[in-house]
Amino acid sequence: MHFDQRTQAALRDVGLDDAEIRDASDAVAAAVERDADHLEEFFDRDVLYSDMDMAHTAGGINEHTVEYLDLFTHGSDLRGYLRFGTWGVPVEGGRVLSDDVVELSLGATVHDRVRFAVDGDALR
Predict the structure, then answer these.
(1) For residue 80, how many other CB atoms are within 10 A of its CB?
(2) Which pTM value belongs to this model?
(3) Measured in Å, how far apart are the chain's first and last C-alpha atoms?
(4) Residues 5, 113, 82, 87: is their CA dihedral positive or negative?
(5) Which residues are bridge partners to 101 per DSSP?
(6) Which of 34, 41, 90, 116 has the highest local Cβ count within 10 Å?
(7) How far apart are alpha carbons 75 and 29 in whole angstroms?
(8) Angle at CA 103, nearest 5°, toward 42 and 47?
(9) Residue 72: which of 111, 35, 26, 117 has the closest Cα?
(10) Does residue 26 sit in helix, strand or coil?
């Protein structure tokens, strides 16, 4: 079970028994796995657009050549690595916003939540 002890105690306080808490934990883990699968499929294309703040740019929408997104899950955690054409960054979370837009929490070097889209107009 991935719920910490405080969360488990709070769930018991609102009336859930151990089996129900376990079922909720399993449902969260399954949802994270589905999101990871969707995110990896989303990044399985040559070019994506983002609203990432990048050095040496004026801001706005950026075009990226994508090599791969490799994710793993554990309970409610979603982590991995996003590789662009010439650089990469750790992924520390992510979510599907729509069929055309996703958001990743990127780690070291970026330290931000970044939206990615199949079309730059979707980020405006």
Answers:
(1) 20
(2) 0.89
(3) 40
(4) negative
(5) 117
(6) 116
(7) 5
(8) 45
(9) 35
(10) helix
Q: 23 in helix, strand or coil? A: helix
**Length of the chain measured in residues:** 124
- For 115, how many CA atoms within 13 A lie in the half-sphere containing its CB? 16
Per-residue pLDDT reduced to its tens digit, 77-114: 999 999 998 899 999 999 999 999 999 999 998 999 99
Return the residue matching tokens 């859930």: 16
Distances (CA, A) of 119 to 13, 59, 72, 123: 46, 17, 26, 8
Torsion of CA 38, 40, 43, 46, to 10 degrees: -130
> Which amino acid, residue 7?
T
